[in-house]
Amino acid sequence: METTGIIKKVDEPSDWVHQLVVVMKKNGSLRICLDPRNLNKAIKRPHHPFPTFDEISALLSGAKFFCKLDAQSGFWMLRLDEPSSKLCTFQTAWGRYSFLRLPFGLNSSSEIFHSIIARTFQGISNVCSFQDDILVWG
Known about the structure:
Domain Reverse transcriptase: 24-136
Strand order of the largest sheet: 1-6-5
Protein name: Transposon Ty3-G Gag-Pol polyprotein
Number of domains: 1
Organism: Lygus hesperus (Western plant bug)
InterPro entries: DNA/RNA_pol_sf (IPR043502), Retrovirus_Pol_polyprotein (IPR050951), Rev_trsase/Diguanyl_cyclase (IPR043128), RT_dom (IPR000477)
Number of strands: 8
Order of helices and strands: EEEHHEHEEHEE
Structural class: alpha+beta
């Protein structure tokens, strides 16, 4: 993750230092997540409504062709600013690191990611996003 620019090693003191947790995905692979329980209590979550199943079903009415795109590791495509990066510092056996990209585990990560995906496809017909999936139909 360090070589791909997702995290960086830090030596300076930090007000926030979190642990990492490993979560199993539905497909059985593992996902590394920040465990920022205390930070999550202080975060003011942005409001970005997710479409409901009924809303998505109504959009798909009459469609014959479907394509589901998975924005795999999409959170890591979103760069954090310096103050946010410092808030996302974590401890490992190999030292202290900070996330440079949006980590899994923040309570606002889903809303931030989904709002950017929704803006990206705004105004384009037959495209809808939900979480990290993008649905295209015709």
